[in-house]
Design brief:
This protein has 253 residues and is of the alpha/beta class. It has a single domain, classed as Aldolase class I (TIM Barrel), CATH 3.20.20. The protein is built from eleven helices and eight strands. It has an eight-stranded parallel barrel, surrounded by seven helices. Strand 7, helix 10 and strand 8 form a beta-alpha-beta unit. Helix 1 runs parallel beside helix 11 and helix 7 crosses helix 8. The termini are close together. The mean pLDDT is 97. It binds phosphoenolpyruvate (PEP). The site of phosphoenolpyruvate (PEP) has 13 residues, from strand 8.
């Protein structure tokens, strides 16, 4: 057993009105407080406009909260955007950076992710940095190289800054598709990620960083994934919209 933090993180994406979100957060809080006996950390990533309300609602609870995205600039004329300082000012614990949907639909690159990571850490946010290959890249056996390039976004961070970074390996072909990477396939990539982090930093950083798996995680496959040597938790999409499924996943450590 290692000392890495065990994390169940729920990405709500563009789901839930405010009232629905409050209901879901209430259920998650109640179940976490009454049922969760392990030391798993629970993080939710609701839509931006719910963050202030849900932060207040979850005060005093074990649930942490973060944003699904942020802008890489500190401030300025970027209509419609949200800065790291704004997220810090409303007490956010975390921000998700580089989710594959942001890379796919909003042209996010490893370079823009690197800028975001730096600004987020400077403003005191913890980062969940998402990486993962497409099916085509895997079929072309480019998946290890793709991940190495994505991890370049961490270059230049200090070992102490890396304590505020969590990695999420999310093969794009497994997100929202119902197809999960096998526990062995996922663990193989997690080990590769740890080796790359060791090369970029050192062995201590590599052994300390929590690496989550994401891609159709459900209560019935969570235990198998969490039982693997290098899988420290999950970033959960669809199943995080059900309090029952989300907490059952968190109970699977
Ligand atoms: C995600 O969007 O990060 C995700 C893993 O989604 P799902 O669990 O629905 O595959």
């Amino acid at each position: 057993m290692n000392n890495r933090r065990k994390i169940a993180a729920g990405n709500w994406k563009m789901h839930k009105t405010l009232l629905e979100g409050q209901g879901l957060a209430h259920e998650i809080r109640t179940m976490a407080e009454t049922e969760l006996m392990n030391n798993a950390e629970i993080i939710i990533f609701p839509p931006f406009i719910h963050l202030v309300t849900l932060k207040k609602q979850l005060e005093g609870s074990p649930i942490q909260i973060g944003a699904q995205n942020m802008n890489q600039h500190e401030q300025g004329a970027y209509t419609g955007e949200i800065s790291a300082a704004m997220l810090s000012s409303i007490g956010m614990n975390y921000v998700l950076i580089g989710h594959s949907e942001r890379r796919q639909y909003y042209n996010e690159t490893n370079d823009s992710c690197a800028s975001k990571i730096n600004v987020a850490l400077a403003k005191g946010l913890q980062v969940v940095y998402c990486i993962g290959e497409t099916l085509e890249e895997r079929n072309d056996t480019k998946h290890f190289t793709v991940i190495e390039n994505q991890l370049e976004a961490l270059k230049g961070l200090s070992s102490s800054e890396m304590k505020s970074v969590v990695l999420a390996y999310e093969p794009v072909w497994a997100i929202g598709t119902g197809v999960t990477a096998s526990a062995e396939q996922a663990n193989e990539m997690h080990q590769h990620i740890r080796n790359v982090v060791s090369t970029l930093f050192n062995n201590e950083v590599a052994e300390g960083v929590s690496i989550l798996y994401g891609g159709s995680v459900k209560p019935d496959n969570a235990k198998g994934l969490f039982g693997m040597s290098d899988i420290d938790g999950a970033l959960i999409g669809g199943a995080a919209l059900s309090s029952r499924d989300f907490i059952d996943i968190a109970k699977s450590f």
